[in-house]
Amino acid sequence: MADDATPALLASTIDCNDLEGMTEFWGTLLGVEHQVHEPFGFLAPREGRRATIWLQRVPEERVGKNRVHLDFVAKDLAAACDRVVELGGSLGDESSWQQFHWRTCSDPEGNEFDIMQAQDPPPDAD
């Protein structure tokens, strides 16, 4: 049970060098309103969701593999991956585990994230 001392996720923040370009990439990819107010980029939350993504300009380049990454789900995984590439991102490995199938992607600055194929609800689900 949550209490006043239990944190709630507000946003995931991605460090970047090209604040305007990265805010445009993520806002367009996710289909949400987005705006830049130096040194931050803000994405509006998706309808029905409270957490969102923010971006923060930093002077240093990305080094090494992400220790934390974002996971998304899409009704059409192939179309979502095509969109990543169209917007300047890149595609990595495809993976499967049990009935789950996803693709690792990278934004234009190399930050990795996954997009998973949406699963049909079980036949007996409401």
What would you note in describing this structure?
This protein has 126 residues and is an alpha/beta fold. The chain is 17% helix and 37% strand. It contains 2 helices and 8 strands; from the N terminus they run E-H-E-E-E-E-H-E-E-E. It has helices at 19-30, 77-86; strands at residues 11-16, 34-37, 40-43, 52-57, 70-74, 90-97, 100-106, 112-117. It is globular. The mean pLDDT is 92.
Distinctive features:
37% strand, 2 helices, alpha/beta, 126 residues, 8 strands
- Which structural category do the helix and sheet elements fall into? alpha/beta
Count of DSSP strands:
8
Largest sheet, if any? Answer: 4 strands, mixed
In whole angstroms, the N-to-C terminal distance is 26 Å
Query: What is the average per-residue confidence, as pLDDT, rounded to a whole number?
Result: 92
Order of helices and strands: EHEEEEHEEE
Shape: globular
Q: Approximately how much helix is present in the residues? A: 10-25%
| Helix count, DSSP H or I runs of 4 or more residues | 2
Radius of gyration: 16 Å
Question: What is this structure's SSE topology?
Answer:
Blueprint lengths: L10 E6 L2 H12 L3 E4 L2 E4 L8 E6 L12 E5 L2 H10 L3 E8 L2 E7 L5 E6 L9
Parallel strand pairs: 1-4, 5-8
Antiparallel strand pairs: 2-3, 3-4, 6-7, 7-8
Short description:
The chain is α/β, with parallel strands linked by helices and about 130 residues long. It has helices spanning about 20-30, 75-85; strands at about 10-15, 35, 40-45, 50-55, 70-75, 90-95, 100-105, 110-115.
